[in-house]
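Course assignment 3, question 2. Fill in each field.
Student: A.L.
Task: Predict the tertiary structure for the chain below.
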Amino acid sequence: MRRVGTGVLAGLVLAAGPVGCGAEDGAKDGGRSPVIEGSSPAPSPYPGPLWVADRAKGRVDGSETEHDPATWGTGAAGRAVECAARLYGGGPSEPWSEGDGGGTPEEGLKLFFEIEQPDLPQSGYRVERTEGERVLYSLDVKGRTKVAVIVAKDRPNRPGWGPETTAWCDPAELPAGFAESKGYEVWTDRDGRRVPVAELSSGAGPEHCDWQKAHFLQVGAEPERRSYGRDPDGVLPEEMLTSRYEADVTMPGDARDTGRRLNRWELWMAADDAKAYVRTPRGVEAWPAVRGGGCA
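Answer field:
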């Protein structure tokens, strides 16, 4: 499956980041169904077709609507999600062999978790719409679809029921506590709203590198994303940081409050972006920019 989103702290290996961790919370969880039993129909189901052909330059099915390039490959699922921020992930399914497909739409949904192992909630879905031999399953948060999985029957190279296209929103928009359970630190803005992790993310370093006492921060969306490091115990390679981490500094005169908060941390940025300044109850810390790299 093509992933259209970026993981926490791209280019760095973190202790509990989202990349490659889906199998840990896989669909094979004792047989629990991903679908809410007896769930009520969606009050305002997605009204569009359950299959669209993604075409070059974002044109879909020959329509005159220009679509965000990030949604290419997500088909109708990319239209069914209702994200506050940019689409985070999704795409077409991988093919499978005879006998691997499900005998029912719900088994097709379970197959999505088994073969793709996405870092997504694996329960709480409901049937939002059925159209011929396609079914749209959705995971809603406060009445808005945040994950859409379209399963179809007997498609080319996909015998039986299984996923056709999928799309999902930023982890910060998924059910409360899910992002944090996957190692994401979700910051908030001035109004207390959760900031997309694709725009701002942080987390501890990985234990297998002995970097768990360090902390990393990424600011901005791709391709302008910038990384910063907190290293009070000096566990990071010296060449990894562009300057020394400082635990107690005077806030620069040109620094501005971004309004971003994580618990009692406040994020400030100076004009040159060479360091991130984090105000804490004890003072101001200077986190230098990261040159890149990680550990195996």
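Instructor remarks: The helical segments are 75-80, 105-116, 178-181. The mean pLDDT is 85.
Grade: pending
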